[in-house]
């Protein structure tokens, strides 16, 4: 049962699994204080270092947070679902102007969704300028930046670039990558360096193939689940 200790001592992964199960079943509800490292070590007949390692693993998974006051279950333990298909129904395409796709889920968690937005002309990243066929060296695009929160818990960053008033959108492409967060994202999303973000790059195109809008979504992977479904057949 141990990596290097005597038989009967629990290793850090087993302790983390037990604590994670208690969180999942509600024995440790959101925002509740977890046992201390010493208390976990005593319960699982191990040393404090092993207990501390198990808590670090849970922090990396986004299930708990640590502060000077102790270790607490994260306020959001039920992942938010992003439906990558129904959100692109015609009535949903103007999400940047109507950022309420997740409001009902947030309210079901007993939390209040809020959005901090900023719109201004900016110099776009070179790859965005290339897609939109604009100058990468001037403030050639209109950018809408949005930070979404559940109460005071940051849950998403989104930046949308466009060069002109939108024409009707014909196709949507999404590229998805799991990666480590940047320093700016760590600060804005209240994350740690060993956690991961989901980066979704969404490109909306007109009927003739022109890129109309490029949107970059940054989601903490421990808070989100992506869902996709398609109709099969001709």
Please summarize what this structure is.
The chain is α+β, with helices and mostly antiparallel strands and 234 residues long. It contains six helices and ten strands; from the N terminus they run αααβββαβαβββαβββ.
Provide the fold topology.
Elements: H1 12-25, H2 37-43, H3 48-60, E1 64-67, E2 70-73, E3 80-83, H4 103-108, E4 113-122, H5 126-132, E5 141-150, E6 153-162, E7 171-179, H6 183-189, E8 197-205, E9 211-220, E10 224-227
Can you tag this structure with a few keywords?
single chain, 234 residues, Chorismate lyase, two-stranded antiparallel sheet, alpha+beta, six-stranded antiparallel β-sheet, disordered N terminus
Describe the structure.
- The longest helix is centred in the first third of the chain and has 14 residues, at 12-25.
- The protein is built from 6 helices and 10 strands.
- The protein has 234 residues and is an alpha+beta fold.
- It has helices spanning 12-25, 37-43, 48-60, 103-108, 126-132, 183-189, and strands at residues 64-67, 70-73, 80-83, 113-122, 141-150, 153-162, 171-179, 197-205, 211-220, 224-227.
- The termini are far apart.
- Helix content is 23%, strand content 32%.
- The radius of gyration is 22 Å and the shape is elongated.
